[in-house]
Structures are given as structure tokens and as C-alpha cells.
Amino acid sequence: MTATLLFLPPGADDPWQWLRIDRDAIVDRGEGLPEGDAGAVIAVAPADAVTLHWADIPARSAAQAAAAARILVSDASASPIERLHVAVGAAEAGGGETDPRERPIGVVAAERMRAWLDALAGIGIDPSAVIPAPMLLPRPDSGYVRAQFGPQSVVRGPSSGFADEARLTALITGDDSPESLGRDALDAAIVSAVSRPELDLRQGPFAKRRRRAIDWRLVRRLAVLGGLILLATLAIDVVRIAKYSAAADAADARAEAIARDGLPRGADQGDADRLLAERLARLRGPGAGFTATAAALSSAVRGVAGTELVALTFEPNGTLRATVAAEGEAQANQIVARLREAGFVVTASTFESNGQRLRGDVTVALP
């Protein structure tokens, strides 16, 4: 552990003092401001500016513990609670909702706390924690211990901590005189207290704002994962396209096989679609073919009452010649009109009387 303790001066004329901890030992100390790489800076608040309490508070959430502490402090403080900053220390091991443990509570004027942080910011220091000076001393099982921090002497008991003033100390300790800690014992207590602070005043509105550093390793990992996702998506599309292409080729192969089944044996090799179209044209005849042309003529005759088809001839050039009998010339004209509406070119001869009916020839072809 590497850290620098910077003691906030109790008075405006008092000097700054500091000590540096490295590898669980105090390696340097001095007055003024630390120079060089100070590592993590922990500010130590003077004992006379912070009032300490101990209370049984269940180990609830930080917000619930702070609310409970403010209620306790409001009953024991003469100042309005809105002007005070209340910080709650960690619960002792084993504490819980049904088994509360004593927790330290630090009370300091909010204006004083703000002034400390502003003064430290003015010299380029943003402390990672602010610890009341009495909390650097070991908590005795009984009695009191005393130590000197620069110009200020500090006393701590099992459930108290305060600045050492003759009348106040005597009033609190009574006949139990505080035991002064030696240099080695004090250094060991400071190192232990800094490694695991019991109470940090930087809470709530004065909590240290942590800058979120960019985790480049995570960024690179996310970039790799994003690239793999894109490659997987591209691979899926490529596989899908390949499947569609294979299915299309298989469909073309099946269509060609079916087309070749419709060709006569010994047909020339080549495009089966073209060969099948040519055979179909030969089978149905030129023009629209016999079937389509005869169907159009039959439909026209059926659609006109009093007409009938007498004879039918299909010429090699695709022309259909038919003899039609009708009750009158009007019915014959209706047949011609229906064929023309179907898209055919119609030529009709003169209809002559044959008994009680008219008979004539009609020639039907494509344009």
C-alpha cells in the first residue's frame, strides 16, 4: 500500500503536516505539502472539527444507515441538522437487521467540509478519503489512549474520540488518565487505520467522484466480437444465396428433363425449351393453331341464337374456313363481329338463301 496522509491544519496559522506510507510502514514525514508522486492522498480532519458518536445501527443499505444516523444526531446536536454533514462508518462483522453492532458516526459542519475540499482542490489534491484524526488511534477495550498529531493532541476511548483539552479531557475521562502511545505503536496504529478506515467523511454530497477509465481491453474484445458477429451474418447470407442458387439450378434441371420427355425419340440435342416450342408449333399448326381458332369460332356460333356450324376446313397456312347457317343476315353479322372482337381477321362471303335459312362461308385467320 502506498499512500500519503495530509493533516488538515486545525487553525489558519498552523502548518500542513504529512507522512507517507509505503509497504505497510511509514517511510517519510514532514511539514508543508508533499512533493513528488504522493500516491493516494488521505486527508486527516482535525479532532476539534468533528464530533464522533457510536450507535447501534443495523447493517442496512448506506442510505438507510445514513438516515438513521441523522435522526440520532439531530437529537444530540444544537445545530440544525440541515447544516451538518453526517457520515456513517462500516458495521462490525456479524451485524445485521436483528443483530446490530456499534457503528461510528462522524458529524461535521457542511460548510467546514466544503471549505476543506475547496482548499485541497486549490493545491491540486482530491483526497480519496477524509478520516477524523481520532480514528487513526486504536480503539481500546477500556480506558483511553492519547497521541500527538502535530500541534494537536488527540484522545480516543471505546466509544469516543476528541481533541485533548485539559478541562474537557478530565471531564470525560474522570479518574481514568489516557495512556500516551509511543512512536512505534502510533505508527502501527496509523498504518492499520489507513489500510481499512473505520470512518470516511467523504460520503453523500461529498463523496469522491470516480472517473470511469476506458477499458481498452474490453473495447478491443467488443470490437472482435462485433467483427465475428458481422462475419457470421455475412456467412449466413452467403450460405442462403448458395442454397437458393442450388435450388434454382435443380429446378432448371428438372424443367429441362420434363421438356425432353415431351420430345420424340431421336430428336436433335440442343435447347430442350426451344425444341419443345418448335414441336408444339408444328402440332398446333400455323397461326393461332387449329384448336384455338376452332374454339373461337365455336364460341361465336354458340353465342348467337339460330346459327349453326355446317362445315369446317383448316388450311396449311393457318386459315380456318367454315360454312355457317343462320336464320337471317343479322345473326351472320353477329358471328363475324364476335370473331373480330376475339382478335381474328374475318372475311365472310355473301349469305344466300337455302330454303328457310341463309348459308355462307367465313374465313378466320390471325392478323
Descriptive report:
- The protein is of the alpha+beta class and about 375 residues long.
- Helix content is about 35%, strand content about 25%.
- The longest helix has about 45 residues.
- About 0% of the residues have low confidence.
- It is a single-pass membrane protein.
Helix content: 25-40%
Q: H/E order of the elements?
A: EEEEEHEEHEEEEHEHHHHEEHEEE
Q: State the distance separating the first and last CA atoms.
A: 104 Å
Mean pLDDT: 84
Shape annotation: rod-shaped
Query: In this structure, how is the largest beta sheet organized?
Result: 5 strands, mixed
How many β strands by DSSP?
Answer: 17
Radius of gyration: 54 Å
Class from secondary-structure proportions:
alpha+beta
Oligomer: single chain
Widest sheet: strand ordering: 3-2-1-4-8
Low-confidence stretches: 93-99
Number of helices: 8
In what range is the share of β-strand residues? 25-35%
Topology diagram in text:
Blueprint: E1 2-7, E2 17-22, E3 26-31, E4 40-45, E5 51-57, H1 62-76, E6 84-88, E7 101-109, H2 110-122, E8 129-132, E9 145-149, E10 152-157, E11 160-163, H3 166-173, E12 179-180, H4 183-195, H5 216-261, H6 272-284, H7 290-302, E13 307-314, E14 320-326, H8 329-341, E15 345-348, E16 352-354, E17 357-365
Parallel strand pairs: 1-4, 4-8, 9-12
Antiparallel strand pairs: 1-2, 2-3, 5-7, 6-7, 9-10, 10-11, 13-14, 14-17, 15-17, 16-17
Helix pairs in contact: 7-8
